[in-house]
Write a structure and sequence with these properties.
homotetramer, Fumarase C, Chain B, domain 1, mainly alpha, 471 residues, Fumarase C, Chain A, domain 2, 3 domains, two-stranded parallel sheet, 6 strands, Ribonucleotide Reductase Protein R1, domain 1
């Protein structure tokens, strides 16, 4: 099939090369943005008298009929036409005649594909922002629902100090709040209009880029045409955002997998989020959590791939940049699924609160409180630490818990211990005592939930504003 | 040497393990932040009556004398003391006695190291922001200085359309402007105060985290103690920022290497930025540009390393996170060097303007203008493209340039060609004609320089504000 | 639809989760291997009397009819059935009744999918090995065809010393020879039979794994069942091989892009391997080379993705490992295309030999020879280097080439110069003089071609041997 | 300070650039290889009559005295001299006069640094091979020592089937055996001699590369001079090897961290391999395992860094390639430490065998055996799976174990159950029953240990052979 750029060529493209260099198999997902961009472009050309009004009307009608066909599933894409832009333009000319050839006046595929990708990503950012927000809501709800459940807090996967489950859940909430902040940064740098950059240097036609930006509800226009066609920062920044977000979800996944194990037994996932084994009838595997953890690698890979692609490329457009899309699309799909499944997974997850509390009772995670007890009686912290360290060693040798020591035993380590020590090292007391800002005490957690609620309300309003730019 | 946490241990650490787990060889670079943080902590403990005023005074005096020793080069670090925190605290106690042991009340190394890293990175962000801004200034100056130099613009490394060198330089300016925007995002999420999170759950002492934040000029306090000690987002986000920035510099480097080649000969670098060969006496190699391009890989590697480290870690602190620092430090050093050397490299780079213009004259990069000429006479763009494509093929077969065709030859391709065609395809005319917003015409480039100047002024004011938080 | 593992579950899988955890959309590509593996397993079960002979016959017939359906395009895959294994087994039971349920005796999906992937990769290694070999043949042919073409050799993209084009081509040949060696290592570690490992611990049935290995033409059997189901080394090693191979192709691509530029004009690619521009009629872009260079990032990404996935996973199988396949499949497709297109691209690439030679004549790449001339007259190399460096500086200031200096000028730099100096620094003489083993002289290049031919013959025999294990 | 290549330069290098491009701060570690390579080169030059015998003697004596100074710590490195090669050569000339300048005849820094790195890596491969082998020995010893300990085997971190601890340990052994195989591949492609390639094209002197190879005990000589100076495959392949090895160690680390948790309590690490907390006196953290897991990210980062550096570089040497060394050196150090510490960590790790067995007794990991029991009585596997799945669900609802069901209860699920069922699902019986090749039965494990021993003996002999090439 003859190419739209074939004039200078004496020979056709190799068929295998055609397939290799074609992007239609994945960029067809941009059809709606491509058509919306072309309509805005046609309107602008007419407004600027580059084409006649009736020509613009014909073009727009033709484009809308193509969109209808695509959405009805009756449009057939042709890999020989390389990409979504050429597929649509070729069909347009078949349908409305040579005037279709006027649509590509004053633009190039370089700025056209940049426009489509910006439009597409903007829309997905809004969707992802909402899903992120919804997961935060689910976390907040989960924290509130179980606001009195005590569990061991860990460092180095060793029990460290007792905490509230709600406090633990809020740790993830505040990670996601930062992710939302990063997503806003991506939005800001995606919300820039590249059309009019032409191949790289601008165009000789008297166009109006601000008009196109307004039509398509962009907040800004690229200031430099070369930059406009070769910039992939916004995709890289999105992939960075996604990598850090997935990293957060991978940490949560790791914990849910741990908590679901026989050894922890802190939670039970809903059957709907697990699968079984083809051979072991007893198995109930936390597949969803494992898969989200696994898919983190995939997103890192996409980030690394595009960083590598972009490294050392001379300006402006190079074919290498066509590699930007598949990784972006797959990242969008993966992030959306992960966010949505996690909201429902958390909701369906049952806590085994007695087991969690029992875990706290069986360990030494109150040792810090025992040291703090001594400090409050005047011992420098370092000496208090030493005293308690020795007590723990003694307990380990005697197979006792700290709460099982007699006052005499306590006092053999330090004369400062008194009868109130046993009260001071109860789990509930330890939790309540961590009442500084951001700490795990019920009072602090309640306040943190309130702050979270305020942040989420502000997020929702940001999302709603961005959503209004939908075209 | 006895550890500060040794009470519970029956046996010493293996010496090789000590070396392996020790971080003092690289985290000593945080000494100033560690001491500033400890002083603020001591003041707060006194203010909150956790320790006595005179105790705080003793501690502060001791810390300041240690800082003096470190800066005088008379302090010896000990790897058995694991890290900068323990090195300083141990010495403090040796110097001021057991009261030194009170400093660690109500904090843990987990929140302490987080505090130090936040403080350190904040300061480096200001420095890097300034250097980034200075490089932008150098680009703006370079663009202005050579505002009339015409060169070929490239896509696919094939000559595409004539452009101004200044326009090309501005493409990089606007990339760096986005980098600056991303750096502000990093700042925002670095400017959060973690101290008071304790090991992970907060502390049982009546501390005042807002007071510490104020003392250390932080804009915000972490809302959740678990998050505060396990968050490494801000480092990852900084590494992402640095990766994209270095990607930009790698593109510029690639171009400077190309331009310095015998084949291009567009620029000559200053001897000060080149090195020679041990064997080939004629060589003058653009080493600096190559090394910056190469060091891009190193920064990508640091990003990938920390993403990998953080993936799937259960909350809260795990020793794996100690791996955050070396990559961060090396990234800071590399970015600072790259930015600073590039400002002077650009300044010292001489353009070979006649050669650049000559290149434009020898090629077909005016073909688009020839097609636009036909469009303006009424031909649909697609047909105009075809006509010009055939003309180019004809020229190639005849070894001619487009400017060497006779009118008869032009008209053999389309009757629309007239005598004004030769004027229309002169390089200067082509450049001037791309006069839409963001295009390469001298008028547009002048306006872009003005916009750039405005952006840079705003950046400087942002930097100055951030610099005031220096402690 | 009811799951094959549903007995223990009180509730169905969430539909979205089903889609998320399903792999049938990509693992259907393993159908042939899955069926071949099942047939071998069924034969073995019969041989070991675990099932009856006639049961095995029924199962095998059923499997073959399913394979026929798949290949006829009449088999419909169901995502609710999760993966290729369950899709086939379910259909088998529908077709031959409950005896189909006996096929899964003494195996698990864990060892089954491992088997399929090993079988699949083995076959693709043979194909890729052949394609790699064919590209090497094309390089060898290209080197031989242009065995007398002289071009500048570069370091730092600065002209360094004259070389033969054939010598340059052979540099790539020997890189690919190492790639072939690495591919053999991948083969060795892929050619291991995992079936019989069961879920992770082996099986309670008296099976014969060596029999299965023989049926499926494997060279070895996994020694440890846990390792057999959790090993993904062979995929990682393949991805590493592919990354290094693509890195090599990216270097060649970079050079072909440079050589195709107007500035170099060393080669002209066939129209069949280039594409044009939608806006610039004169453009002929080396898309294939750019795309191969770009796709290098994609392969690096797949490697990084799987390394990340595998990091820190406890034994044995975890769902994360399902992420191994898409990256593997895409890498296989990309590598195959890149190898095959490059063989034809090189064949179709025309050299502009006069331009290449002219480039050598216009530069200082004979400066080393001028220094060597002095060394042979007794000057220590370091002093000779200094003398020539000064001569070059003088030439640059005088806008002369070394070959344009008078004898008097030569002697002003060193009295050792004599009339034979002009002969000594001719390009042909410089090339001929580098006649040590592995050097660029025609004699050495001829010998290297001979060695290459011998290596390629041995490769072909290795490939043929491996190909015989095809099932 | 004047450069050895300064003749052509009118101006000195910028001081900051000097520091930036200098590599002496890290490549000084190659001094021994550099001197050994220079000695071999000098001998060869004398043998080939390029320099006189007495000149070679002077040079060699000078080099040896420099080596003595370096080893005595009395040699001062100068960053203005860029690298180890120039540092040594400059000193040589200071010491023995202008004849020192003859050493660099017929070589370049490009082939010289390649030689040094090959020599260095070869030596480290031998060391690492030995350490890898020693860790395998430690695993084998651990497996043998605890050959009767039963523990739960996991998939998806859910208890799956009972296994022997020894079997689990052997899974790691066989991973490391593959790592050893990969290391041999690295050796093969590192054991190639690049010297004589000169800057890129060979040399005009009548050198004898085979002689140098023999002197330095190389197995092969690079066949192509351009390839010889630009090849970094062997480093990339080493980094790939190291990445996969560290991935294996990260998996083992994850398990040891899990096993050390209060929830698992399967093992107790020696105090010597743990550290405590500055605030929580009870803590005993598995730092070494965490740090090895964390350092995996670092190695992945080094791999990604060098892959990125090498991507798209034109031939031959480019300064970017200087970035190959720091990552390599750090990888070598990290791998060596990880291997050595793990051998001792495993040795010091105490198993809590009763707890492990108890875990098996408390779960449903015998469910597969219950299904196999039914299969052996004639039920198709799929139906048996269904029956057992229902039994498990019943037990969960009744809070019973399978071993606590009455015969009547068993028979309510299938009439095929008989009194022997309780025996069939005992942990010991389940383990013993998995007696197929590579399974977990004691007999199979004993045989696997024997096979392992044979493999290790062969490895040792390979290492010993390679060690003989030490220079």
């Amino acid at each position: 099939m003859s190419k739209l750029w074939g004039g200078r060529f004496a020979k056709n493209t190799d068929l295998a090369v055609e397939e290799f260099t074609s992007s239609i198999s994945f960029d067809n997902r941009l059809y709606k943005q491509d058509i919306a961009g072309s309509i805005a472009h046609a309107k602008m050309l007419a407004k600027c008298k580059v084409i006649a009004d009736e020509e613009a009307q014909q073009i727009i009608a033709g484009l809308l009929s193509i969109q209808a066909d695509i959405e009805a599933g009756t449009f057939s894409f042709d890999i020989a036409l390389e990409d979504i832009h050429m597929n649509i333009e070729k069909r347009l000319t078949e349908r409305i005649g040579p005037v279709g050839g006027k649509l590509h006046t004053a633009r190039s595929r370089n700025d056209q594909v940049a426009l489509d990708t910006h439009l597409y990503l903007k829309q997905e950012i809004v969707t992802i922002g909402q899903m992120l927000h919804d997961l935060e809501e689910a976390m907040l709800a989960k924290a509130e629902k179980h606001s009195d459940v005590i569990m061991p807090g860990y460092t180095h996967l060793q029990r460290a100090q007792p905490i509230l489950f709600a406090h633990h859940m809020l740790a993830y909430l505040f990670m996601l709040v930062r992710d939302f902040g990063r997503l806003q940064g991506v939005w800001e740098r995606t919300d820039m209009m590249p059309l009019g950059a032409g191949a790289l240097a601008g165009t000789t036609f008297p166009i109006d880029r601000q008009f196109v930006a307004q039509e398509l509800k962009f907040g800004a226009v690229y200031d430099n045409s070369i930059d406009a066609v070769s910039d992939r920062d916004y995709i890289l920044e999105f992939l960075s955002f996604a990598s850090i977000l997935m990293m957060h979800l991978s940490r949560l996944s790791e914990e849910i997998i741990l908590w679901s194990s026989a050894e922890f037994s802190f939670v039970e996932l809903d059957d709907a989020h697990c699968t079984g084994s083809s051979i072991m009838p007893q198995k109930k595997n936390p597949d969803v959590a494992e898969l989200v953890r696994g898919k983190t690698g995939r997103i890192y890979g996409h980030l690394m791939a595009l960083l590598t692609v972009a490294k050392g490329l001379p300006l402006a457009y190079n074919k290498d940049l066509q590699e930007d899309k598949e990784g972006l699309f797959d990242t969008i799909d993966t992030v959306k699924f992960s966010l949505s499944v996690y909201a429902s997974l958390l909701e369906g997850m049952k806590l085994n609160a007695p087991r969690m509390l029992d875990a706290v009772r069986q360990d030494f995670s109150n040792a810090t409180d025992m040291a703090d007890y001594l400090v409050k009686k005047g011992l420098p912290f370092r000496q208090a630490h030493e005293v308690v360290g020795k007590s723990v060693l003694y307990c380990l040798e005697q197979s006792k818990k700290l709460t099982e020591l007699s006052l005499a035993e306590f006092q053999s380590f330090s004369a400062l211990f008194d009868t109130d020590i046993l009260e001071a090292i109860k789990p509930e007391v330890c939790v309540n005592a961590r009442n500084s800002y951001g700490g795990t005490s019920p009072q602090q957690v309640r306040q943190a939930i309130e702050r979270g609620r305020g942040i989420l309300a502000a997020q929702q309003s940001t999302i709603d504003t961005c959503r209004q730019t939908k075209i």
